[in-house]
Every structure is written in structure tokens, then in C-alpha cells.
């Protein structure tokens, strides 16, 4: 069976595209790294379901607004670009708000005022200004997707922790007429309600950010140590190579000297022979 080999240009392109998405999820996570969108993060992450709903709504708006801003980046004048971006974002937020109100009214009520406030969410405005306005449509869509997924994961993570500790439940919510979620044993009787209050939001966010920073620092330290060890190995190999080359050069020089001495002796013997012949 013949194995298909992916062209080098395609591999490089796919690697670059994946980095755009991964950047928003990990390296430049809008909540844990850039510390953006704190208002909805603290207010909505009282449950995992609410966090998921807000994150997906913001992701849809991010992807659509980034795509349209990128398409119109050469048309929108610089003097009115921010109002234009706000108008574009508001259009998509209104569409998302209408869909949630129609099909998921419970989630719409839970998100409350924070849903229309997506219009002025600094994450969306920042990506429209910093990325979509200077990049192609495909890359802008991927950037919006990565940032939206990073925002969603952050909200869900905080929501899971706060819901578990503050209510003793896991992923409770209502979708249409269906209710779902898990009540964890007798946890509701021992739940700490402070975690579903604003103070609990700040506390949870601070602890999670501290843990992520500690893990990142540890990983960075290990990476630096690995690079340092690899550098030492490379230096040792270079030193050995230079020593071998110098030894070979010295050996070649000795052989050249020996050959030159032999040739000189042969020439001297020839001259002496010639002089003896002349004397005879």
C-alpha cells in the first residue's frame, strides 16, 4: 500500500493555523492570561451550564465579527473603525440574543444583562482591533474560534468549581423542557454558598490563576533545563569535532613534513651522485 506524504508547505500551513487556535486557548487565554472580560466571568460562572452558554455565545460573536471585520478592513476608514466594529458586533449579539430567547429561555434569563453587554466585551473589541483588522478572513476566523474556546473553557472550569463547592451540584441546567444535572450526594447540605457570591468568584479566579501560573512556571523551568542540557550536548559534540579536526590536521602536517624530508633526502642523494659522476 502506497503511503501518502503531505507536502512540506501544507504541513507548515496547518501548523501555523493550529497555532492561531491554540494561542487563544492556552498561551493567550483571555481570562487566565490576558485577564479580559472579568465582568461576565465573575458574574456568570456561578454554574458550569451558564458559563458554557455565555462562552458559546461569545464564541459565535467572535468568529462572525472577526470574519466581517476582516472582510471590510480595507473599506472601513480609520477614523470610524471603533464605532464600525461596535455596530458589527452589536448586530451579531442581537441575533444570538434573539435565538437564545426563542430556544433557550432559561439560559437567556440566567445570562441576563451580561448577554447584551457582549457588545462592549473587551475581548471581542480587542481581537477585532488587534487581529481581524490586519489579517485575512481565514486566520481571523481561527483567531476568533481560539479566543472563544479559551473563554468558554475558562468559564466552564470556574463554573464547575463554584457550582460544586457552592451548590453541591454538577452541570445543572434547563434546555427547553429538559432538565439535567447531577446532585452530588449530600453535598448540598454542606455547600459553601460564598462560592456562588461575588466574593467566591474572586477567590476561585485567583486560586485557579495561581495554580495555572505555578504549572506554567514549572513547565517553563523544565523546558529551559532541557534546552540547556541539549545545548551542553551540542557544545560537547562541537568540541569533539574540533579536536578531531585539529588532530587530523596535525597528523596531515606530520605526514607532509615526513614526505618533504624524504623528498629532500632523495634530492640531496641525487645531487651527490651527480657530483661524484662528474668527478670521475
Give the strand tally. Answer: 2
Largest sheet: 2 strands, antiparallel
Shape: elongated
Beta-strand proportion = under 5%
Mean pLDDT: 85
Overview of the molecule:
By secondary structure, this protein is mainly alpha-helical. The chain has a domain at 11-196. 74% of the residues lie in helices and 5% in strands. It is built from nine helices and two strands, in the order H-H-H-H-H-H-H-E-E-H-H. It has a two-stranded antiparallel sheet with strand order 1-2. A hairpin with a 2-residue loop joins strand 1 and strand 2 (178-183). Helix 3 (48-71) packs across helix 4 (81-103). The longest helix has 82 residues, at 198-279. The radius of gyration is 34 Å and the shape is elongated.
Describe the structure in brief:
This protein is 74% helix and 5% strand. With 280 residues, it is mostly helical.
Topology:
Elements: H1 8-27, H2 38-44, H3 48-71, H4 81-103, H5 105-111, H6 122-130, H7 137-167, E1 169-175, E2 178-183, H8 187-190, H9 198-279
Antiparallel strand pairs: 1-2
Helix pairs in contact: 1-7, 3-4, 3-7, 4-5, 4-6
